[in-house]
């Protein structure tokens, strides 16, 4: 739901990445590391995260999905309000189908197998992000289905009346399948809590998602924005039905440490549920590109706190980046991985993919990780009241 308030600004910088003054070192994403898949939903603390340290979810004897510890978010692919989709008169004239295709190609050069996250409501028309994945997949002559794991979402909007269930979920799933063109959806996610928690009841939606599994349309179920009590409720329902529940997606970054501080990540791990972290670089705020006088354009509600709280984090990311030869974004993403989550930064072009891929092939020292822990924000409300109320309701986890 966050992201649907009107944008505050419609003009601004294009999607160039931040280039620090110090020398960057290209990350070693695949070589010289132990080739091992982990049947835990996290990368153990003694392992360097790379594309050879795969997370394998589901029953260890019958794994369902497997992907690298860094994925990518496809929310920008067609989004006008937050990311300024150029063809729809958005502010970023460099963001279009061509830049998305370049990002697509760069993703598979750097990270595979990879998790791509999308949703039926991402894009200037519903499903445009899913269509972008389907289009690029159909045009990719090097495509290999095991390289790609796709998570998409069902949105429990209040105008989807309880009387419409379960058929409305079946139709939404069929629409996503048609737009993606991948045969099956790897992880079909509930996008967030239903309206006020009872429109419809959580149990109603979850059982409809389970039906999609029984119908052979999806490989596993995931959720988004749920707290641990809600996660346990979903877990109980799906376990009774014999349906795999593999992930819970929440906003998690140094600008919002809540899922780690509250124990949500650890409690999900105990249930065998991976935590997927959206907005892991604060919707661009932790890249070093922005400051108090140059803030992100568009409607980027997540991590929108007063800048004087963010600047010390950015300064520390730059300090660690200079020491390690990594960009601020790569340091921020590596911290998320160290905390047991799979970051899925949104990318607009190939340069941003390369920047984010620097998060792999190394690991923060314990000292640097601890310093970031102290500086990171917990329970820091958005300073715009309407925005805060919207985000507070939507982000239960």
TrEMBL record:
<keyword id="KW-0560">Oxidoreductase</keyword>
<feature type="domain" description="NADP-dependent oxidoreductase">
    <location>
        <begin position="85"/>
        <end position="373"/>
    </location>
</feature>
<dbReference type="GO" id="GO:0016491">
    <property type="term" value="F:oxidoreductase activity"/>
</dbReference>
<dbReference type="GO" id="GO:0005737">
    <property type="term" value="C:cytoplasm"/>
</dbReference>
<dbReference type="InterPro" id="IPR036812">
    <property type="entry name" value="NAD(P)_OxRdtase_dom_sf"/>
</dbReference>
<dbReference type="Pfam" id="PF00248">
    <property type="entry name" value="Aldo_ket_red"/>
</dbReference>
<dbReference type="InterPro" id="IPR023210">
    <property type="entry name" value="NADP_OxRdtase_dom"/>
</dbReference>
<protein>
    <submittedName>
        <fullName>NADP-dependent oxidoreductase domain-containing protein</fullName>
    </submittedName>
</protein>
<dbReference type="InterPro" id="IPR050791">
    <property type="entry name" value="Aldo-Keto_reductase"/>
</dbReference>
């Amino acid at each position: 739901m966050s992201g649907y308030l009107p944008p505050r600004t419609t003009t601004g910088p294009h999607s160039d990445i931040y280039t620090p003054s110090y020398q960057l070192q290209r990350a070693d994403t695949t070589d010289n590391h132990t080739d091992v898949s982990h049947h835990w939903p996290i990368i153990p603390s003694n392992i360097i995260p790379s594309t050879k340290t795969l997370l394998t979810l589901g029953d260890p004897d019958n794994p369902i999905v497997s992907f690298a510890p860094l994925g990518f978010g496809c929310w920008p692919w067609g989004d006008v309000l937050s990311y300024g989709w150029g063809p729809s008169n958005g502010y970023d004239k460099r963001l279009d189908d061509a830049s998305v295709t370049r990002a697509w190609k760069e993703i598979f050069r750097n990270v595979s197998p990879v998790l791509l996250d999308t949703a039926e409501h991402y894009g200037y028309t519903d499903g445009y992000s899913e269509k972008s994945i389907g289009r690029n997949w159909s045009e990719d002559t090097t495509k290999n289905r095991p390289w790609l794991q796709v998570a998409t979402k069902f949105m429990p909007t209040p105008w989807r009346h309880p009387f419409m269930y379960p058929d409305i979920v079946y139709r939404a799933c069929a629409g996503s399948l048609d737009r993606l063109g991948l045969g099956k959806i790897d992880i079909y996610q509930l996008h967030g809590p239903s309206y006020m928690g009872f429109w419809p009841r959580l149990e109603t939606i979850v059982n409809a998602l389970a039906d999609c599994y029984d119908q052979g349309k999806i490989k596993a179920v995931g959720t988004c924005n749920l707290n641990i009590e809600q996660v346990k409720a979903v877990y109980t329902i799906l376990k009774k039905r014999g349906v795999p529940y593999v992930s819970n997606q929440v906003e998690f970054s140094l600008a919002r440490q809540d899922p780690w501080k509250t124990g949500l990540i650890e409690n999900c791990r105990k249930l065998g549920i991976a935590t997927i972290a959206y907005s892991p670089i604060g919707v661009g705020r932790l890249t070093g590109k922005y400051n108090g006088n140059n803030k992100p354009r568009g409607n980027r509600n997540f991590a929108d706190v007063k800048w004087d709280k963010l600047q010390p984090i950015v300064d520390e990311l730059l300090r660690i980046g200079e020491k390690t030869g990594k960009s601020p974004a790569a340091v921020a993403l590596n911290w998320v991985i160290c905390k047991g989550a799979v970051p899925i930064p949104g990318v607009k072009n190939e340069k941003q993919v390369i920047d984010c891929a620097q998060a792999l092939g190394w690991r923060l020292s314990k000292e640097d990780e601890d310093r970031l822990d102290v500086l990171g924000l917990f329970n820091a409300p958005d300073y715009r009241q309407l925005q805060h109320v919207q985000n507070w309701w939507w982000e239960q986890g």
